[in-house]
Specification:
The complex is a heterodimer of chains A (259) and B (340). With 259 residues, chain A is α/β, with parallel strands linked by helices. Chain A starts with a strand and ends in a 5-residue tail after the last strand. Chain B is mainly α. Chain B has a single domain, classed as ABC transporter involved in vitamin B12 uptake, BtuC. Classes of the chains: A alpha/beta (259), B mainly alpha (340). Chains A and B meet through α2 of A and α9 and α10 of B.
Chain lengths: 259, 340
């Protein structure tokens, strides 16, 4: 379980996260939604310790992730970053093996067990056939799968994803989120996903946190959070919410700003 | 495993060839057959002529010079690879980012104080070069940085500008201290003109520390290729790793400069060729650049002795003649191709 308590982050004088508290249970997929600049990416980066927090904590079983040593933190929390740079000369195999870093000494010597885990991770994201390819040659969707495989190779109980679907087509968006949901429901990971697409969030998330101006404005099931008045106010746009005829999840239809 | 060590094997063979060449070639040419006899033969009592003369030349002149040039090349090759990895920039080189010139300035300041020609006196010059090199890295990096990134052009511009400034100061200092001018000028152009074993001993501690740390830093450099954020998320203490590698690379550069003057482009060419041939894994690239750098600089030194014999050309001129066109080629190539 990931417990975020009273987390605040500022860039200089500008406060980008204000007193955010959230918990993500084991086996739960929690989606972060909100307009651009609401602080979704900042929350992911702060929880993974990359951006220093002014106050508050992010913890797992009493271990404060913000102050834990780098390798200990990386054994608890893994991140699939948004539009990550991949050095083109690295092969998929080398890239995924780096996910084992928190378990290795500083020389980075991998054992047979590490290689087995890396291979299983690739298999899990259905990318085993890419193993010898250079990451520079991969499509956006393939790169995203390799990044997820690397995160899985970290074998962490908590997984964070920052806009994992932003560069994927419809088919790959659905494929990736299906897999991420399985990781939560079947493997028991606590998964926090920042998502732009409200309807994907509605379809895949167990709970949704709506962020506006660095604060959590609403938190609950998709039906509780994706209400027209909440969404309209957050996005400054009139919206209608209907039920998706396929699975009865809420479906947000944006109106036009002039209405 | 054999597949991974094969490149290193070939590079070492190349180094052995370069070492033999460097021992054999000079104002007195030692024929391969005699060299072979000296290396493998069993002699009792005094050596027959001309072997005795050859042995004297080798032990007191050629061997110290060969060791010195090889160590300098190893230091420049490895630190070049490390700087390229740290800055994630294919054009980072101890010379181009100004560190070599900064170290040169430090060394000249130390020389102008006129330390005694002793072990400790010789140790003080690389120390001054090292401190100046660190200061240079800090200044150039701060000047070139935009937010969290260090764009290539900024890095090279800041490096070249600061390097020119340091070189100008160096020249100024040298013009003022009349007694040392000739010695320093020959040194500055990059020539292994300091003879004997004493300079080798003075420099060795710095080189051993610097190069050992670099050899251990391959995994960290691999992680840093993904950028600070991903390296952090994968569990690398980014700032600490960066600092240690930066200090080690600057230590190696400073030792090389204090030793042999400012020799450009070795740290650019060697890691590049190694990367093209053997891939970008820094755990392999660092030892390969070290061995390859030693071999490359030995060949350059042989050319420096031979081309205008009996006159010697400063080593830095040879490497620049080979390196500057290579630099331009890399610059053009890195625009549209991404093996980096």
């Amino acid at each position: 379980m990931l417990r975020i308590e009273n987390l605040s982050v500022s860039y200089g004088a500008r406060r980008v996260l204000h007193d955010v508290s959230l918990t993500v249970e084991n086996g739960e997929l929690l989606a972060l939604i909100g307009p651009n600049g609401a602080g979704k990416s900042t929350l992911v980066r702060a929880v993974s310790g990359f951006i220093p927090a002014q106050s508050g904590s992010a913890s797992k079983n009493g271990t404060n992730l913000l102050t834990a040593p780098a390798s200990e933190r990386a054994r608890i929390i893994s991140v699939v970053p948004q539009v990550a740079f991949l050095p083109p000369a690295f092969t998929v195999w080398e890239t995924v093996l780096l996910g084992r870093t928190p378990y290795l000494n500083f020389l980075g010597q991998v054992s047979a067990a590490d290689e087995t885990i890396a291979r299983q991770s690739l298999q899990r994201v259905d990318a085993l056939e890419l193993i010898d390819r250079r990451v520079g040659e991969l499509s956006g969707g393939e790169q995203q799968r390799v990044l997820l495989a690397r995160a899985l190779a970290q074998s962490t109980p908590i997984l964070l994803l920052d806009e994992p679907t932003s560069h994927l087509d419809l088919h790959h968006q659905v494929g990736l989120l299906e897999l991420v949901r399985t990781l939560a429901h079947h493997d028991g990971l606590a998964v926090l996903v920042a998502l732009h697409d409200l309807n994907l969030a509605a379809r895949y998330a167990d709970r949704i946190a709506l962020m506006v101006d660095g604060q959590v404005k609403a938190l609950g099931t998709p039906n509780e959070v994706l209400r027209p008045e909440l969404i309209s106010e957050a996005y400054h746009l009139p919206v209608q919410v209907i039920l998706n005829p396929l699975d009865q999840s809420p479906l947000v239809l944006p109106g036009s700003p002039k209405e | 495993m054999r597949h991974r060590l094969l490149p290193l094997f070939w590079t070492i063979i190349f180094l052995v060839f370069a070492v033999l060449l460097s021992i054999a070639v000079g104002s007195v040419f030692i024929p391969p057959a005699d060299l072979w006899r000296l290396l493998t033969g069993k002699f009792s009592g005094t050596l027959p002529e001309p072997l005795a003369t050859y042995a004297l030349i080798i032990v007191s002149i050629r061997l110290p010079r060969t060791v010195m040039v090889a160590l300098t090349g190893a230091a420049l090759g490895a630190s070049g690879a490390a700087y390229q990895g740290l800055f994630r920039n294919p054009l980072a080189d101890p010379y181009l980012i100004g560190v070599a010139s900064g170290a040169g300035l430090g060394a000249v300041i130390a020389m102008s104080i006129q330390w005694p020609y002793s072990f400790w006196g010789l140790m003080a010059i690389p120390m001054a070069a090292f401190l100046a090199a660190l200061l240079t890295v800090f200044i150039v990096y701060s000047l070139a940085r935009v937010g969290r990134t260090v764009p290539t052009t900024n890095l090279i511009l800041a490096g070249v500008a600061f390097g020119s400034f340091a070189t100008a100061l160096t020249s100024f200092l040298m013009l003022r201290s009349s007694g040392e001018i000739r010695r320093a000028l020959g040194w500055l152009l990059g020539g292994a003109s300091q003879a004997g074993w004493m300079p080798v001993l003075g420099i060795l501690p710095y080189l051993i520390i610097g190069l050992s740390i670099l050899l251990l830093g391959g995994h960290a450099l691999n992680l840093l290729q993904f950028g600070d954020e991903q390296a952090h998320q994968l569990g690398l203490p980014v700032t600490r790793a960066r600092t240690i590698i930066l200090v080690a690379a600057s230590l190696a550069t400073a030792a090389a400069v204090a030793f042999a003057g400012i020799i450009g482009f070795v740290g650019l060419i060697v890691p590049h060729v190694m990367r093209m041939w053997f891939g970008g894994d820094y755990r392999r690239l660092l030892p390969l650049s070290m061995v390859g750098g030693a071999a490359f600089l030995l060949i350059a030194d042989v050319l420096a002795r031979v081309v205008l014999a009996p006159q010697e050309i400063p080593l830095g001129i040879i490497t620049a003649l080979a390196g500057a066109p290579f630099f331009l080629w890399v610059l053009r190539r890195s625009k549209n191709q991404g093996y980096w």
